[in-house]
Amino acid sequence: IPLFRSADAGFRTGARTLLKKMASNRFCPPTLLSFLLICVTLWSSGVSAKSAQRPNIVLILTDDLDIVIGGLSPLNKAKKLIGEEGISFTNAFVASPLCCPSRASILTGKYPHNHHVINNTLEGNCSSKAWQKSEEANAFPALLRAHAGYQTFFAGKYLNQYGHSEAGGVEHVPPGWSHWIGLEKNSKYYNYTLSVNGKAQKHGADYSKDYLTDVLANMSLDFLQYKSSFQPFFMMVSTPAPHSPWTAAPQYQNSFNATKAPRDPNFNVHGKDKHWLIRQAKTPMSNSSVQFLDDAFRKRWRTLLSVDDLVEKIVKTLEVRGELDNTYIFFTSDNGYHTGQFSLPMDKRQLYEFDIRVPLMVRGPNIKPNQTSQMLVANVDLGPTILDIAGYNVNKTQMDGTSFLPEGKMNSSSWRTDILVEYEGEGNNVSDPACPLLGPGVSECFPDCVCEDSYNNTYACVRTVAASANLQYCEFDDNQVFVEVYNMTADPYQLTNIADSIGQDFLEKMNHRLMMLQSCSGQSCRTPGVYDPRYKFDPRQMFTGRSWRFNRLRQTMK
User: Fold this and answer.
1) Within 10 A of 35 (CB to CB), how many other CB atoms are there?
2) Would you tell me how many other CB atoms lie within 10 Å of the CB of residue 167?
3) Distance CA 372, CA 375 (A)
4) Phi, psi of 360 (to 5 degrees)
5) In DSSP terms, which residues pair with 327 in a beta bridge?
6) Which of 110, 119, 368, 386 is 20 to 30 A from 9 (CA-CA)?
7) Which of the residues are catalytic?
8) Is 263 exposed, middle or buried (0-12, 13-18, 19+ CB in 10 A)?
9) How does DSSP assign 186-209, residue by residue?
10) CA nearest neighbour of 507 among 538, 467, 546
């Protein structure tokens, strides 16, 4: 039984039935019948023409897909069908390198300090009742459906705590979605539950009918087949790959057997001039840790081969239906990833390029093929860009991002030169039994008791990309207000923190810009970097008035 019913197909069937009945009625004059037939034809043509004027939009969102350490390498079909047919952005970043805060930024077009999702827990506002009440109704899909007349389809991972019993369960369908297929909680490949328009649909471990990436592909194709042709559509497909548990489809389980995590200059080296959490990593890593991360790297790539198939199926279906030329397709990720950089085994959550930079490829009407742009964009720009494509005025919203299409904006002097990255660290209140010497306040301490997070791994950064500068400036909310600064042109692997050697004037300007961005909202977040020369440098002002949970544990920190 199809999940979707075509509204225009129903109209045409009804119209044909009515006309047949009228034709068989000897009291119906032929002129009246002809007149009605002309009216129906003109009405149908008018609606179709109106629909054709507004493009369709597809957003394919992957989970934990990096670009810095080769994440796009297995995705040959996606690169060919989207990247080579459109534009690839080389300076695309996330507002926070963690799933739920980043996804909230995509949906709302806001930085974390404005949407208030700080981590992947319900207490951290991930898909909480408070989120649903304050932000969900104003997310860009709701605006697309309510004000731009789009039919909307979602399939896949939404927010990490979606489906939680304290957040409405799977019965909750977020506003704005005319067709909803949401994964309960976090990424899985088998043995999961989907919310299909508010009704639970349980899946097992049979590849032929349960492998999630393929299920999402098939449901997406069903939507394309049965949707209305009288309205433009927005389709968001959110894959589990390449997130753990890294379960590949059977046909891909032996792929990339000789592949290893890249041995870039920052692989398995000590971050001696970085925040204490990076310095605690064991260098060199143990052989078992290296083997573990190499194996994980291969498994991640294997899961991506099914994503590549999904992309191909969607693009080819749009082409067969004659809709491809009028459809924008976005391909991106919610955050990056690392495997061994600065001797951190594997995770995200850090301020470095491998965790905050993501792939972003876009094809669509009037986008020329084989383009590359160095324009500075962030995931807070996705919602505004999609609304802009749909003809909705972004200035009517409270979104912090801005539209990066049409292409003419790329060379505009009014385009921003910097974006904000925010992260609030997480730690455990008690010691990890497997690592008792670490004490409380840390988390994600695996393997070899190397911790990837802590309460005072709380930071904010300005990432600057301009003609005169390619820089990153970060401050931590800890006892030191630790600062990290990188010249990305001279030091792309971020090996040397130049905070202690750079001029005071620069530190003052970047600190001021960081404070401006952390207090921005809406329009004030979109302006290019502007510095106030009257500002006096005081790094501790950045976190004034903010009470972080780790404060009570500072005495346990290094």
Assistant:
1) 11
2) 19
3) 9
4) -150, 115
5) 56
6) 386
7) 99
8) exposed
9) S--SSS-EEEETTEEEE--S-HHH
10) 538
Q: Which of 338, 353, 237, 253 is nearest to 302 (CA)?
A: 253
- The encoded tokens of residue 365 equal 């009407």
Digit-by-digit pLDDT tens for the chain (558 residues) are 345 544 444 444 454 454 455 445 544 455 554 554 444 444 444 444 444 579 999 999 999 999 999 999 999 999 999 999 999 999 999 999 999 999 999 999 999 999 999 999 999 999 999 999 999 999 999 999 999 999 999 999 999 999 999 999 999 999 999 999 999 999 999 999 999 999 999 999 999 999 999 999 999 999 999 999 999 999 999 999 999 999 999 999 999 999 999 999 999 999 999 999 999 999 999 999 999 999 999 999 999 999 999 999 999 999 999 999 999 999 999 999 999 999 999 999 999 999 999 999 999 999 999 999 999 999 999 999 999 999 999 999 999 999 998 755 555 667 899 999 999 999 999 999 999 999 999 999 999 999 999 999 999 999 999 988 999 999 999 888 999 999 999 999 999 999 999 999 999 999 999 999 999 999 999 887 765 555 555 555 555 444 433 332 333 333
Q: Residues 169, 171, 172, 177: is their CA dihedral positive or negative?
A: positive
**Calpha distance 300→74 (Å, rounded):** 10
**What does the buried/exposed string (b/e) look like for 49-81 if buried means 16 or more CB atoms within 10 Å of the residue's CB?**
eebeebbbbbbbbbbbbbbbbebbebbebbbeb
Instruction: Return the number of other C-beta atoms located less than 10 Å from residue 337's C-beta.
Output: 27
CB 403 within 8 A of CB 527: no
Q: pLDDT per residue over 287-306, tens digit each? A: 999 999 999 999 999 999 99
Helix (H) or strand (E) holding 459: strand 459-466
Can you give 94-148 as a three-state secondary structure string?
CCCCCHHHHHHHHHHCCCHHHHCCCCCCCCCCCCCHHHHHHCHHHCHHHHHHHHC
Fold of 56-409: Alkaline Phosphatase, subunit A (3.40.720)
Q: Residue 514 belongs to what H/E stretch?
A: helix 504-518
Contact 452, 281 (CB under 8 A): no
In 3D, which of 132, 56, 44, 70 has the Cα closest to residue 386? 56
Quote the CA–CA distance of 173 and 425 in Å, as a whole number.
30
165: Cβ contacts below 8 Å, ≥ 6 apart:
none
Give the orientation angle of helix 99-108 with respect to helix 140-147, to 10 degrees. 30
Cα–Cα distance, 388 to 405 (Å, whole number): 8
Dihedral, 260, 265, 271, 272 alpha carbons, nearest 10: 140
Q: Which amino acid is at 161?
A: Q
**Backbone φ and ψ of 306, nearest 5°:** -75, -30
What is the C-alpha to C-alpha distance for residues 121 and 35, in angstroms, rounded to an integer? Answer: 61
Residue closest to 386 by CA, chosen among 148, 154, 182 = 148
CA–CA gap between residue 108 and residue 78 (Å, rounded): 26
* Three-state DSSP state, 136: helix
Residues 6+ apart with CB under 8 A from 364: 55, 86, 327, 328, 329, 389
